[in-house]
Design goal:
Aspartate Aminotransferase, domain 2, 2 domains, 42% helix, Aspartate Aminotransferase, domain 1, alpha/beta, globular, 392 residues
Length: 392
């Protein structure tokens, strides 16, 4: 008898992540294991760092994949740049902005909230007001808010922070590798992400990059970073030519990330950004033809993840279960106060394609009709096809 956990279903993962991955990435996991101090692995580390610098668009020396999920990147960023008792302005317009406030509080940092309605962008003037009434060491915000599908403009906020002598921390968990991002040109001091979304690898790594300015601030702290595991200076001693032991790296995971980053480089960042934007717009055209309402501000939608309001008569959980049962497709539910109120459709990495857009529009139409939603079969696909014809 085959136990269920040894034979998982082959889902099409169109939720908030992780996403499906290229077969090349899976094959990388079958490569022979070496130790974390093998000369071959040092070469892998060097190439992975160079490729991460490419996707972050940075020349930062301190650029590496943390062993851990996106929470690891968030916690490392906050712990390293701010000391206990210091203030950090945190932008809150979704679930993960709230998460950042919670993490900051737990590590002894005083969060100063700048808020906007969930699904809307944060305003520059609100950050300016927060700086005027605080002694904030940094400003932290989410580039692509996974819970709402909003993409936050960054550049002007980073420039404002620098004018106040503060540092900018940016969460690019659902944007890195799929949405326009330029760490150096935008003046971002610490930027972190994950391996399992637009980069197209497996969950378990959190790429992070630190500017020279922020690196010097960490070096000159009055107190040690409160977590040895997340001490970025200690980690850099292993990832630099010094190769000082810190912890046993997840070698196979880094093989997989290396291969995923090679795929990103082969496609080209700008082409990849355009692909994600194009397929996002194709999906939106189809959803609007189905008379479904976007949740996020249309002018600031996240190209890798689209959120739509659940029609009032529809059971969100029944729709998602029907998609699993009949199409083997997973889409995301709402988080926090949006639970049961929105659908989240992710088009990341290999899943950002015209084929996947057409498939989810067909499947979602059928699922909604099963729930009694009055829509014409094919309307969404026709609208998406018209969009693709107009941009091809």
């Amino acid at each position: 008898m085959t136990l269920p956990h040894t034979n998982p279903p082959n889902r099409l993962l169109l939720g908030g992540g992780p996403t499906n991955i290229d077969s090349r990435v899976l094959r990388a996991l079958l490569a022979p294991l070496v130790t974390h101090h093998d000369p071959f692995f040092y070469e892998v580390m060097n190439e992975t760092q160079d490729l991460l610098r490419y996707v972050f668009q940075t020349k930062n020396a301190l650029t590496l994949p943390l062993s851990g999920t996106g929470n690891a990147g968030m916690e490392a960023a906050l712990r390293n740049i701010a000391e206990p008792g210091e203030e950090v302005i945190i932008g809150v317009n979704g679930f993960f902005g709230e998460r950042m406030v919670e993490v900051a509080t737990r590590v002894g940092i005083k969060p100063i909230r700048v808020e906007a309605k969930w699904g809307s962008i944060l305003k520059l003037e609100d950050f300016e007001a927060a700086f005027k009434t605080s002694q904030a060491k940094a400003v932290a915000l989410i580039h692509g808010e996974t819970s709402t599908g909003i993409q936050q403009p960054i550049r002007e906020i980073a420039a404002l922070a620098k004018s106040w002598g503060a540092y900018t921390i940016v969460d690019t968990v659902t944007s890195l590798g799929g949405c326009m991002l330029n760490v150096d040109a935008w003046g971002i001091d610490i930027c972190f992400s994950v391996s399992q979304k637009c980069l197209g690898s497996l969950p378990g790594l959190s790429p992070i990059t630190v500017s020279e300015r922020a690196y010097n601030a960490i070096l000159n702290r009055k107190t040690k970073v409160s977590s040895y595991y997340f001490d970025l200076i200690e980690l850099e001693r292993y990832w630099s030519e010094e190769r000082m032991y810190h912890h046993t790296a997840p070698i196979l995971m880094i093989y997989a990330l290396q291969e995923a980053l090679r795929i990103v480089q082969e496609e080209g960042l700008e082409i990849r950004w355009k692909r994600h934007r194009k397929n996002s717009q194709g999906l939106i055209a189809g959803l609007e033809a189905l008379e479904l309402e976007l949740f996020a501000q249309k002018e600031n939608v996240l190209p890798s993840l689209t959120t739509i309001k659940v029609p009032g008569t529809i059971s969100e959980i029944k729709v998602r279960q029907w998609l699993l049962d009949n199409f083997n497709i997973e889409i995301g539910s709402g988080q926090g106060p949006l639970n049961g109120k929105i659908f989240r459709i992710g088009l990341m990495g290999v899943n950002s394609s015209e084929e996947k857009v057409m498939l989810i529009l067909e499947a979602l139409t059928r699922a909604l009709k099963k729930q009694g939603y009055n829509i014409r079969m094919g309307a969404g696909m026709e609208a998406a096809a018209e969009y693709y014809d107009s941009v091809s």
